[in-house]
Amino acid sequence: MAGTGTIAGPAPVAPAITMDDRCIRIYCNIVGNLDLSPRVMRSMLDKECDDKRSNETYRQLMERRLGRAYGNGEWKKLASFSANVLETSTDSTKLDVTPLFLLFTKLFGLGKGGAFKDPTALLAKLGAVKKLRNDVMHDLDNAVDAQKFTELTAALEELVREAGRFYALPQADVDAEVQNLNNDIDKVRRMDSQIIYYWCARLASSGKRAIRLLWKAKFEHEKLSLNHETVQRQEVFHALDMNVRETDGGKTVSYTEIFEAREKVMVVTGVAGAGKTTLVKNIVLQFFNPQQTAPGYLRPFNQLIFFECRDRTTPTLSDVIQQHYEELCIELLKENVLMALLRLDVLFIIDGFDEVNENSRKVVLEIIMKTWRSNCRVLITTRPHAVKELAPLLRLNDVSSTQYEILPLTKLADQLAFLRRYEAALGGDTLTGEVSKSFESLSEDVRSLFTEPINLVHFCEMHKHFPKEISSWKMPGDVAPVKLRLYKELIQTKLAGSINEDSDILIKDMFNAVGAAALELLNDDVLILMEADHLVIKEKIQKTPKSNDEVDPAAVLSVMLKEHKPLCSNRSSSYEFKHKSEQEMFAGNYIVQRIIGGYADSLYSILGVPKEGMSRLREVLLYVVAALSRDSPRHLTRRWPQLKEALCYAGVTRNAVMACVASCPNAGMLGDLVGDGSSLHVREDRHVDAAVAMLSLSKPDAVEVYMEAAALRGAPWGALVAAAGGAGVWLTLSSPDAYEPHDDLLLPLHDSG
Ligand SMILES: Nc1ncnc2c1ncn2[C@@H]1O[C@H](COP(=O)(O)OP(=O)(O)OP(=O)(O)O)[C@@H](O)[C@H]1O
């Protein structure tokens, strides 16, 4: 069979052909659609393009007929996935059914030499052949259907005869072509195991089934980062929206719509924890789900290849193929399986381009170079900063792409829906709704810390591990102590395997390195870190005493910082703590460690900021007081005069003082800050206890209580009146029931003076 792509690689030992009838049917359909159809169409194309110059590409021919050149955007829109092959091919040998069909439709639209012939009948016959190709290549049930091959042979004969009419060929020529076609059809029926289409048939027949188990085992479950609990990945999957980067202002689309892009390469970007890997793993699971036929957006693909850029051990694409189709590669050789695969309709997924290394870069490049055919598509995920490295790689290989950005979950309804899935998956039959209820009860400020999926999963984990702390979160800063513990455990997981010793001290030192930088940046009023700042912190982490070469400081930092891709490709990335309160948390933690570590330095020299600039550290100082009161009250007492002064310079508010004391009762000495001659305001029931603690150490002129009667009834109101001593107590009660008696709340005031 001429031009059928006989195997170019080392010939495998010819297998004993014990093909079952099913495989023969698939073989016929594959050869019919991948070989016979294009050959018939190519011979027609040569007639249609008899004016084509030998060194002219099909794009150039179309431009000549159009009378002008296409703009690049116009061309991409017009030629879609076939753009590349049509602008590089000067003959039809590399064109298969999809670009051929497209070419015919466009050429007919352009007309030839002013003459117009109605192509409707011919296009209908071409369309029938193209439809059969897609039916067979996208659905195995059709590929095993012998009737499809019968339909195809009939459709091809009709096409040859219709082309004869359209191009006014002599009847004898048409009959000869039909005879040739029938001879080829007969040859197909006597299967040839030495041609590439045989391997294609084997792949189409058993390839998907062979790797289904591989991916199911790898991806079916998701292990949570902290408690090693697992959830079914597909059960918790939340369909995230995407922003199309190319369109200014950004159109929002669902993740399935990214496959509607005209470009063959789709690049999905997202910050750390935005859900890139989760997205592609779910796509893999959906593709291989044995229970259902693949969802519509995946139906055009016959095979799926998944490659992770963090892989350092797979040097070539054929090795990747070997991992996918181990058994077939033993029999057919990996190079041949790869060659055959590239003839099928394949989706290549490349995950985590930002983690690419010397080896995996070669594989990525091979994928990009070998998938020029219109039947392959490539989905690449990356953190935003690496786009500037990926874009030139694509450009250099003349590949156009569409870029999408995963959108954060900013709406409460979406956040709750996300949490409920995890809660249901973790709670088994006992869904209590506690996690989502607890989240819903948080203030909007606090909730704004949880817009990336990873943070929402952390919330679930914190809820499980530290539920009491969560119920006391009132401000973003409240999340910090619990987060710190969580960060510690996340880094421990990141470092697992790279350190042998107890990681506690190493992590403490790393936190200090990051905290010192966070403090310095706050002092300079800097929230965005430039590449140089990032480098300095990385060096500090590397120099921590228990660190070693195995510890990757960038990986440790990626747990704490989020990265921003520059808009301009010649600029470097910038970084940011996941929230300002987290920067304050790391800075505060560093100060606490310096104080507890027994350093004699004055507070001001630790803070490194003059009194006038102290307001920048307001929240940091409150964090320090709260942390010391929790972890080492004696150090709080010892440092209190300095801290009090700094807090005064920082202009800490009464409300903030009250909130701080409320979350750390040992911090009652903050009452000092309320000062003589002023009054203490109590507006929340949880602050009543705090006010009692503060009054034991300071004596304001008055205590003013503004509260709902029911709330005050549940608080130690009597103790507050007693602690107020000589200070005047001013009580303003509110109640939904105007006639409800409140005599009980007046009782403690009796004899109070
Ligand atoms: N769409 C989603 N549905 C449910 N959970 C998700 C989703 N996306 C992410 N998650 C959760 O967030 C975690 C982090 O997501 P993922 O690893 O996919 O992020 P990423 O963008 O690949 O991050 P990185 O850049 O750090 O590799 C996942 O392990 C999963 O628990």
UniProtKB/TrEMBL annotation:
<protein>
    <submittedName>
        <fullName>Uncharacterized protein LOC125178683</fullName>
    </submittedName>
</protein>
<dbReference type="InterPro" id="IPR007111">
    <property type="entry name" value="NACHT_NTPase"/>
</dbReference>
<dbReference type="InterPro" id="IPR027417">
    <property type="entry name" value="P-loop_NTPase"/>
</dbReference>
<dbReference type="Pfam" id="PF05729">
    <property type="entry name" value="NACHT"/>
</dbReference>
<feature type="domain" description="NACHT">
    <location>
        <begin position="264"/>
        <end position="386"/>
    </location>
</feature>
